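If you are new to this repository, start here. Below is one unmodified record pulled from the training split, so you can see the exact layout before writing a loader.
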Amino acid sequence: KISPAVIIGLIHENKILMSKYAGRAYKNYALLAGFSEIGESVEETVHREVMEEVGLKVKDIVYYKSQPWGFDSNLLMGFYARVEGTDAITLDKNELSLAEWVPREQVAGMDDKISLTREMMENFYKNGEKCLQ
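And here is the target side for that same chain:
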């Protein structure tokens, strides 16, 4: 069984939305993420997960790359997207303990050379909004 999941690098005005999970041992920054539901495209998953976790609409979704994650049989698919409309966050406190806009220059050096999430953060640091092309 393979579980498809998305990772979302949400970009707004040279900042990326970074979050921290609620109630998990992992306390470092992460990007928004979530599992696809049956009958849902991965692009629809991006829209739904961002709306559910931080109350934002997205546009200009661009596929980055995928990563099999053997620890729990996931297939992670990374996307970048822009905010559509307001950038005011409405946090789902059941999912996240924190979500904030982080300026590009503050994202340096986060690549752990293992996870797609960290690679996407570093890619944003190096390339900024070019990630959306």
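Two things worth knowing about this chain: The first strand starts at residue 3 and ends at 12. Helices lie at 42-54, 116-127.
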